[in-house]
Specification:
Nucleotidyltransferase, domain 5, 5 helices, alpha/beta, EC 3.1.-.-, six-stranded mixed β-sheet, hydrolase activity, acting on ester bonds, 6 strands, about 160 residues
Length: about 160
């Protein structure tokens, strides 16, 4: 049975109280990966996967999830500024559906509007070189996405 694909709000009451999540920033050439601690308080960058084909890409993602004992994934959904979904969001949903066929871990979709821009701005402010930014931007964007989802999950748990 494929894994469920859920919004953060729908997933919040279904998640166990402990267990880390894997954050994913899906790009056309790379996939940024981040992970959280088991208490789901803090997201940290893991790696950037150079995209090849779905099967090896998914294999690497699932391997990272297994190694970290993850209980689910948070996939950035690149929604347009007006809230509509364009080709990139459709590609992310297709990736989620394909990944769901290979795992039982839930896949949580999180609005990632402007995440890469925010990360780029922060790295420029830290005076990071362009070459170094290019190396880490995707995993930093995955961290930004995952941290936003973690914060929202914590808010829902506290406020209902």
């Amino acid at each position: 049975m494929p894994a469920p694909i859920l919004t953060i709000a729908d997933a919040a009451p279904l998640l166990p109280p402990r267990g880390g999540l894997i954050g994913l920033d899906l790009g056309t050439k790379t996939i940024g990966v981040a992970s959280s601690d088991p208490e789901r308080r803090l997201a940290a960058p893991v790696e950037t996967i150079a995209r090849k084909q779905f099967t090896p890409d998914a294999g690497r993602i699932l391997s990272l999830a297994t190694a970290r004992g993850a209980i689910g994934f948070v996939l950035g959904l690149p929604v347009n500024m007006d809230g509509s979904e364009g080709p990139r969001a459709q590609a992310s949903r297709a990736f989620a559906r394909n990944l769901a066929r290979l795992t039982e871990l839930p896949i949580l979709l999180w609005d990632e509007r402007l995440s890469t821009a925010a990360v780029e701005r922060d790295m420029i402010a830290m005076d990071m070189s362009r070459a170094r930014r290019a190396e880490v931007v995707d995993q930093q964007a995955a961290t930004f996405i995952l941290q936003g989802a973690l914060d929202r999950l914590r808010f829902i748990a506290t406020n209902g």
